[in-house]
Automatic annotation (TrEMBL):
Species name: Microdochium trichocladiopsis
One Gene Ontology MF term: S-adenosylmethionine-dependent methyltransferase activity
InterPro entries (alphabetical): Diverse_substrate_MTase (IPR051052), Methyltransf_11 (IPR013216), SAM-dependent_MTases_sf (IPR029063)
Coiled-coil stretches noted in the UniProt entry, renumbered to this chain: none
SUPFAM superfamilies registered for this protein in UniProt: S-adenosyl-L-methionine-dependent methyltransferases
Family recorded in the similarity comment: Belongs to the methyltransferase superfamily.
Record-given protein name: Methyltransferase-like protein
GO biological process: methylation
Length: 310
């Protein structure tokens, strides 16, 4: 995953606008770990730790946490935002495909990856995890995809068109042909995530008690354990979130001359997308320049995969 290493990527914005994880999610994965015959709580491994959100939330349950991320910028952001009371967390630059930083084989009691597992090369990751996770230890992978704006189907369709379409999605500002962000997603990672990692299967010779929970965005009736990423947000927060998409990072690099209005420019693709989205919802449009204060419920597609080391 090279997007987070690009100069156009902002680890600070990622930390500010990416949604956090609810207590129900942590309760689910920790409950699974605790249900083992002899759960141990010595070391947790956080793969693709990003800005350290998961490590901080789960550090109270383990004697030590090793949190790795391939992006130096993410590691720096995690270190700068982690308080001294989380002194049992060690942040380091590293990938899931190379767990040499872990040290002794079988020393990990629980390995987790939140919103990172769709980038992994599992031909290398599964053997690595089988080596470092001790018998009876657990692995928990989770993530989220494509949020829908509940009750605002037209605005959601517009957002999806700008985010996933190839070629022209709008023609504005005196003939500017706006290219959609579809070609800027890194693949196959994005499509793996959009399929809720159904192709990712823990090898049965090493893992047992495999449990999978999933929720498609907008689906009704799923239990809270599966539909764990749903929250009320201001439109300004949703706008900021769309600027953390890796496809936008690629688009902004390709169209470096198109500056956001907030940065003094004439507008980039996110500005144009939100112009159209706001215009599609009468109550948002009626708010004029105050549209960012409107509230909307976002519902993401979500998955959790959990397995126990044989």
């Amino acid at each position: 995953m090279t997007t987070f290493a690009k100069t156009a990527f902002s680890a600070k914005n990622y930390a500010a606008f990416r949604p956090s994880y609810p207590a129900s999610l942590y309760n689910t994965v920790l409950g699974y770990h605790k249900a083992g015959p002899a759960p141990r709580w010595n070391k947790m491994l956080d793969l693709g730790c990003g800005h350290g959100l998961i490590s901080r939330a789960m550090s109270a349950h383990f004697a030590a946490v090793l949190a790795t991320d391939p992006s130096a910028g993410m590691v720096k952001q995690a270190q700068s935002t982690t308080a001294q009371e989380n002194s049992n967390i060690t942040f380091a630059q590293g990938s899931a495909e190379d767990l040499s930083l872990v040290g002794e084989d079988g020393s990990v009691d629980m390995a987790v990856a939140g919103q990172a597992a769709h980038w992994f090369d599992y031909a290398r990751v599964w053997p690595n995890l089988a080596r470092v996770v001790g018998r009876g230890g657990t692995v928990a992978l989770w993530g989220y995809k494509d949020n829908v704006l509940v009750g605002k189907e037209q605005a959601t369709r517009i957002m999806e068109r700008y985010i996933y379409d190839f070629g022209e999605v709008a023609n504005v500002q005196g003939g500017w042909s706006v290219e959609g962000m579809g070609r800027f997603w890194e693949q196959p990672g994005r499509n793996i995530l959009r399929d809720l990692l159904r192709s990712v299967k823990p090898p049965p010779e090493d893992w047992e008690a495999v449990t999978r929970l999933e929720h498609e965005p907008g689906a009704e009736g799923d239990p809270d354990e599966a539909a764990w990423q749903r929250k009320t947000m201001k439109l300004g927060e949703v706008e900021g979130y769309t600027r953390t998409f890796s496809c936008f990072t690629g688009w902004a690099e390709a169209y470096a001359d198109r500056k956001a209005r907030k940065d003094g420019g004439e507008g980039d693709i996110i500005d144009v997308m939100w112009d159209e989205m706001v215009a599609s919802v009468p109550e948002w449009k009626a708010m004029g320049d105050r549209w960012r204060e409107a509230e909307v419920e976002s519902d993401w597609g979500t998955y959790i995969i959990m397995a126990r080391r044989r």
